[in-house]
Amino acid sequence: MTPRPAPAALPADPTAALQPFLRQAAQDLLSRFSGAELSDLVVVVPTRRAVVYLKNELALAAPKGEALWSPRVAAMEDYMVELAGVQVEEPIALQLLLFDILREIDPKLDFDLFTGWSRLLLDDFSALDQNLADASNLFEYLSEAKALERWDLSDSPAPASATAAWFRFWDDLEKVYRRLRRRLKEQHLAYPGLAYRLAVDALQKLLQATPEQVPQHVFLGLGVLSKAERRLLKLLLKERKAEVRFDTDRFYLDGDSPNRAGQPFRQLADSLDLPPTAFGFGDMGAEELLRTLPRRVRFIGVANNSMQGKVAGQLVMEGLQTAPRASVAVVLPDETLLLPVLHGLPPEQVPQFNVTMGLSFRSTPLFNLIDLLFEVHLTGIREGETSSDYGIRRYHHLTVTKLLAHPFLRRYENWLDTQPEQAAFHGVLDDICRQIVKRNAVLLTEAELRELGRHHPLVEALFRPWRNCDDVVQACYEVIELLRDVYQQEHTAIEAEYLYLFYTLVRQLDSAFDCRTQRPSVRSFRRFLYEQMTRTRLPFAGEPIAQVQVMGLLETRALDFDHIIILSCNEQILPAPKRNTSLFPYDVLTKYGMPTYAEHEAATSHQFWRLLQRAQRVDLVYILPGAEGVQAGERSRFLLQIEHDLAAQNPGLELLDLTASATVLPSGQQVGGEIARGSEGNQKYEGDLVLEKDYEMRGAIRGLLERGLSASALNEFLTCSLRFYFSRIAKFQEQEGVAEDLGADVFGTAVHFVLEHLMTPFVAESKPITAEDIASWKPQVAELLERGLALEDGEEAAAPRQQLPDEGLNHVLRGVGVHLVDRYLDSLAQQIAEEGPLRVVGLEQQLFGTVFVETSAGEQVAVRLVGYADRVDELPNGQRRIIDYKTGAVHGGGLNLLGSARKKYTPQEALERLVTEAGGGAEKVRQLWLYRLMLAQLGYPAAQAAIVPLRSPDPTPLEADLSFLTTDELSFEQSSNEAMRRLVDRMLDPKEHIRKTDDLDVCQWCPYKGICAR
User: Which of 391, 835, 914, 999 is the most buried (most CB within 10 A)?
Assistant: First the structure.
């Protein structure tokens, strides 16, 4: 490769460096065409946005003081439709017409099935016509291909079978296509592809009949062309009625370039016999800008999607500060980023900008509300429904609460609370959510929701069952009517615009289906409605030629900017994923020249590289791999091509690989993002959630010790001192929710309730329990377990919580609960047979004790111990024994801190484990130790404390070996006081900060993990 001269240094003002393509085109037109010739000229550009820019460039290029008639400038799609002399029909009307035609051929066609593929079939018909495919040959080939698929030496499928109907569909497809075209042409209507075919036919007839009436055409800045567009150009070029000027670069147009962006243009040069000058305004046609122009390209990685909007705003502000006159474009391959970008633009530094793409209705909060409403009605439980409609009777609590928490409805509730005449409905939505949690209502009937909602019209409209589209339309009208009052009074323009657009969409669908006997189901109506929402955009008013433009990638065709910012530069977004959005097989598409994902990728590639040609500052923002909740792929292939191909060929290209990170002030306020050089800047983990034990903190901990220290609180401190702080000091309440599954806490409480209820009469009467008594308990176990599952805060309520569904794992756990209790009762009966009757003296008995300790700092602390014993037995020798039921896994070896035969510990080491070790058996040993210590202070020094492992095959009491606390020098109580002193020392030690645990397994079920970012 011959060396190129070194490019000049980057100018301070980029606007003086290069002429945009459309400016060159405007100057070229004015220099070659006189006033009369110019006014007769037809100039075709790729987009309507390019029409605006070209007209502006023509006005600026015109000599001062002279008035010129502008040529006719049109976008390619608008020009083709006008040339065809038809009007493009609405997609809904096209689908309904297609259904009528198919029903003529197959009267049994189901409308719900039809809506699943009708849009794809219309798109295939459109692509077929737009690429001038031979319809007869294509459908014949398709029918024969399907015949080969069903070819079999065995018997053919039955004529009435679904398989036969499927293959008959392909045989009838040409008939459907012909009838659809004929009916549309009779009404001067068309779908987009048919308009292109008709335009080519109309031009061909015009050129044959009166060629002198065909004006001169100039095609500027077009991208990848369909066959109809190529045929149009070929007809005009043959009659010398057209000039073509593409905007390309030799970097990808040269024949030896592997870049896919140049492939369609090399094919055009051969098929249309175009000269090199047709590919640009360079000396040799195509420009040589990508490999020669000095430019700075930055790859900027961000942590997540929402951060892209903030970074884009900062990049725009930085670019305007560096070059105040430079034009800036923020390009969004992912249109859902429009709102984050608009919120990220700083109003002081960027007071004016133009949004060309429009906000998709599917990106609005109102769409989210409608989506949640459909989710409520389509995911519930149907009872007694035998027809094919989707009426439901019971709604799932999650979908109901998500719907009622939507900002639109909450805004309505806030407005409602300010209306004195509506006092009976104040707080109605919030009250429904609270009652759902209080009742633990997993599934709610319509009647229950109406009652909870006090029969308010909004609640009635939201939860009235839907059977077909009429019910959906009525509900939508009622919701719109209620919400409209709020936003009209509050004068919030954008929300009112959302509601108006939604009303027009529903009205349009209502009108379309009103005159039809076939009523769409809820799912079919949703599909039609969502298609309409996808195409509907909320337009923004602004200066069309503003310095800062926010646009989609397709809208950038033929436009140039000094500073380019492209977001979402990740695979699966730029370019889009490889998806076959066609009913036709891939071989049919390739054989008949219809576009596949390869052509779509080539078009995207050209749009990307053409946009970079004249830009001297390029910022490409991508999401870092592994970002949580992000489905984007790795870096876009275009970034890799810049890094490994373009950078090697352009010595003036400065490439920076950066990572965006948040900037946090000392006060903790996040002020935005900063761009840090190097990819390692975002990987470092700085700081942790650490709380120092200052005077107030130590005072709070000491207050807890003096009020009451339980075994669970002590274990919590040793396991994770931060969780101990949240729950015991700060007293953060865990968020209540509806439990659909039997959790370990509910299951354990229910089992405890069964055993307590069975033994309570014997405690009240001081009566010993015999084996015969236990035998009489067994028939009661199942019923008592159900009562235990309905407890509210450990007590039986007058209005018990809704029972959890007896299905799936819940059904299994109910059986497990009965089995565990039965097995323990068998074990208890055997124990009574061997040791004599059991005397129980306490159930759920509260225990107290006080230990006076002096810390190493000289503080005197009276530690009050508290606890609840599941059961207190009186043994035949007069000793007391505390029994603690455990429904979780318990291993007897873990209760011995002195170790096992494999590894033994000294008494001093066992004591160290008692006061320091978190989790495992040490937790249970500490619990039994505190129980025994409290019993000793109650006058039972030789008391026992044991755990009954209900899950064990042999649920006999397991005692902890506390012999290491009774040495020759110290008694049990003295050793316990020393152990308590060491624990209190740790809890009050200012040098031992409150922090997260290092054991991430502990965090798995922690209710506070969202606070500490675990």
Answer: 914
